[in-house]
Amino acid sequence: MLLFYRSVTRETYMKQGLVKAMSFEQIAPIVESYKDPYIASEVAILLRNIRTGGSRGLQDISQAELQCDGLLANADFSDIAFMAVQLDYPPDVMCSTLFQPDVDFLGSAINLPGAFGHPPCDAIAFNLIADGQGGGLIVFSWLKSGGSSPEHLVRSLVSSHKPARWPAAAVRVAYEYSENVFWRPSWWAGLPEATQDRLTERFLFTADPMNSRKRSALADDGLEPVKWAVSKTVTNIGL
């Protein structure tokens, strides 16, 4: 519950900052700095779209935060679904993020953002962290009342990957969906150059808002960037 709540509150804070940064007073000088009218117009449209998307996202995530506040106040965690994977080693890559699943681990699109009937906060929290006892955790968590996309994502991982491949899949999620990724310098330095290039390409591609995510983004790419072993899995969704 607390891992999900942390991801939600962090996302709320980021969305609030984005909306504030994209106010008319803030973007007007940026647009006016372009002398070419066409470029200025395109930049204005891009910034307005970012602001609109941020505002809509803030509405959804604020609703989720209110739900979490209620769950914590009542000590009722029945609306939280999760899958936690115990690792034998602290992750060389760590992150905490919240995202809308739009593709699964099978290489298929799921509930694309903006699609008709898209429910509020159909989002999943993803945490790749140390467990404080010499190991690590991969944790997916979401609101059961928020929609079906998060559970679809997790079930696609279980159905398409053997547990030995789950750590590599977790690294793909981190580099695909989190802009707040931390990694051990010695781990990165020890990777083959081809693996470094693939991860860098993934991170830079998804960081550009003009790029559309590929359906195969989370499908197994054959890379083995980490050597963590899965020791145990705990879930409340009956896998």
What does this structure look like?
This protein is an alpha+beta fold. The protein has helices at residues 2-21, 24-32, 37-74, 149-160, 166-177, 185-189, 193-207; strands spanning 80-87, 93-99, 124-130, 136-143, 182-183, 230-235. It has 2 domains: 2-74; 80-235, no CATH class. A 6-stranded antiparallel beta sheet has the order 5-2-3-4-1-6, sandwiched between helices. A hairpin with a 5-residue loop joins strand 3 and strand 4 (136-143). The relative contact order is 0.16.
CA-based shape: globular
Biggest β-sheet strands, sense, barrel? 6 strands, antiparallel
Strand content: 15-25%
Q: Considering DSSP H and I runs of 4 or more, what fraction of the residues is helical?
A: 40-55%
The rounded Rg comes to 19 Å
Number of helices: 7
End-to-end separation: 19 Å
Contiguous low-pLDDT stretches (5 residues minimum) are 113-118
Strand order of the largest sheet: 5-2-3-4-1-6
